[in-house]
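For reproducibility, we list the full input for the uracil complex.
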Amino acid sequence: MDDENRASAPTADNSGVYHLRLKSGDVPPYAILPGAPERTEIIASYWKDVRQVASYREFKTVTGAYEGVRIGCTSTGIGGPSSEICINELNKVGVHTCIRVGTTGCIVPDYDLGDLIIPAAAVRGDGTSDSYIGSGYPAYADPWVVMALSAACDRLGYRYGIGLAYTSASFYIGQARPLNEDGTGYWPSAAEHLIPDLAQAGVTNIEMETAAQFVVGRLHGMRMGAVLSVISNRVTDRWGDAGGEARSARAAAEALRILNGWDRDGIINFNVAMPPMRPQRVGDGGGSAGKQNGGEM
Ligand code: URA
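The corresponding predicted structure, in tokenized form, follows.
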């Protein structure tokens, strides 16, 4: 039957990847990943030759050129599960480097609304990454992506810090927010201690995607990073953008431009960042079993 698909590897009607509706060649290998679909166009608003390539559910993709370098932007939706879908399917169409652009809540007094945090790593409270690998495996950013983001923020004159994020699978109880504005309702003791305990352990901020993206991307052989703007201050209990979302979008584009230059100049030995190839299984035949990224620059 024409409308049937393979359950283990479904494709979209246009023969593209199932959820993102993209095909190889539709997007450049360098991508910015916001959560919200409507942010893709805002992020791309100062690029040249901007084109919407696909839009389906929470996944919207635009491409364009930032300072002469072709980059893409695909929204992931909120949380780990939709991030996993997005990263898997971007990998299938040739993306090798991703920078999450998102918002976060700071939990230490060093940051305030509008500041940028570049997480070097994230505590894995996301849930999704547990489907891939045990909790002892670290969720860490590709060091080159962190360096490029830091260089980008320096060049642009932005206030930022290198942080340690906590990724939660929940916005309310899992981030120590009461269920009701008047403080009534379910309130487990763990919620009371969550933020002070994390801050004591050196965690700088809380959000909902970074750890899942770092682990899933890494295990797909991709370079992952994030730049998060502080939209909520959990120390002073204030919420506001203060220009942070625009700055994080600009910093991510600038970092991808820097990475593209480092790749072209051979400064980064791309393969060093990759995980090992999938071991050959019985019955796989004689050929190489895995796929490794690092093609187009
Ligand atoms: N996103 C989150 O998950 N938490 C915040 O406090 C702000 C943004």
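The radius of gyration is 19 Å. Residues 284-295 have pLDDT under 50 and may be disordered. Both points were considered when choosing residues for closer inspection.
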